[in-house]
Amino acid sequence: MTHRYTFLINPAAKSGHAADVWQELETYLDDEKIIFEKFESQAPGDITKYAQHFVQRQPTNNQDHLVVVGGDGTLNEALNGIRDTMTSKMVPLAYLPAGSGNDFARAYQLDTVPINRLKKIINLTQNSSLEPEFVDTGVYIDRQHQTKRYFVNNLGIGFDALTVNLTNHSYLKKRLNRLGWGKLSYFISIFKALSIQDTFPLEVTWQKQTEYLPHTYLMTLSNHPYIGGGVEIMADANPRDAKIDLIVIENTGSTLRLLYILKQMIVGKHYRLPEVHRYTAEQFDLKTGRLEYGHADGEELGTHTFDLSVTTQKQPFWL
Ligand SMILES: Nc1ncnc2c1ncn2[C@@H]1O[C@H](COP(=O)(O)OP(=O)(O)OP(=O)(O)O)[C@@H](O)[C@H]1O
């Protein structure tokens, strides 16, 4: 039976580098006479719509494959698209990393050389003895806005969300991405965020326990160890255990102390510090008491107080 591929491409990922990646892939697909169709996003939100459309029209055979080309934000959009639809179909996702952070690719050790990754996806999907792997994705209900959304990597409130916001709006990001120094814009934003971010009260409830953390600086929920393009914030987070991992870092002292905590985080010794709180559970309820930035997979959630219920759901991926 013939395999067909639907590619959802975000040409704007990595400040336009993904468009070049796609050109190279398209040439290969044509040369190899692989049957495919492509949908290139014109604006944020398009990938979600294309993914919904794929699920709605997908016949019940497993010869039709959905491949996402872009960064973590693009993958987030695709995941939300396939889950938004009312159908109970579980659509496996294939992902070809072409973004700046690529934390999903890092977590699952995906090949980041585009042609190699494409060949792997074709191999995986055409080998009838292989199955997609079910791994954890985060699902959160925003009680204030009555919405339900999904994330592939992490959801953050406070310092890392502010850093995401500053990076996304940084004029340097584009330039540095073009030079291949995309990470530098993230580091510059970290320093800016350090001078802006204040602490906020957070209430964490899990397994019938509640903890109140009045001086929260950073709060990250994650399916796997990485945030921000390779910062190993929770080395022991397991993306296959049907549990969600949470880290909260409080700031009760000076900026110097904060820098020390962040430095300890980079070398993986932060868990032992009293300001660092680490949890793993099947479900969390989280409430913040001040206006804060939020993000999910680097996609901005706006600035507001948060009242979230977060758990995990398995999603099949061609890894
Ligand atoms: N055609 C488009 N033009 C502008 N922005 C787009 C377009 N299509 C999608 N987007 C938006 O581009 C943003 C960035 O995408 P994405 O996160 O995939 O790339 P990235 O930021 O380079 O990579 P990473 O998240 O891995 O660091 C997303 O918010 C997405 O909604």
UniProtKB/TrEMBL annotation:
Q: Which cofactor does it need?
A: Mg(2+)
Reply yes or no: does the keyword DNA damage apply. Answer: no
Pfam families attached to this UniProt entry: DAGK_cat, YegS_C
What InterPro entries does the database record attribute to this sequence? ATP-NAD_kinase_N, Diacylglycerol/lipid_kinase, Diacylglycerol_kinase_cat_dom, Lipid_Phosphate_FormReg, NAD/diacylglycerol_kinase_sf, YegS/DAGK_C
- Drop me one GO molecular function for this one: ATP binding
BP terms from Gene Ontology: phospholipid biosynthetic process
The chain positions of domain DAGKc read 1-107
* Keywords of this entry: ATP-binding, Kinase, Lipid biosynthesis, Lipid metabolism, Nucleotide-binding, Phospholipid biosynthesis, Phospholipid metabolism, Transferase
Q: Which Gene3D superfamilies match?
A: 2.60.200.40, Probable inorganic polyphosphate/atp-NAD kinase, domain 1 (3.40.50.10330)
Which family would the database say this protein is a member of? Answer: Belongs to the diacylglycerol/lipid kinase family.
Which protein is depicted? YegS/Rv2252/BmrU family lipid kinase
Upper classification of the organism:
Bacteria, Bacillati, Bacillota, Bacilli, Lactobacillales
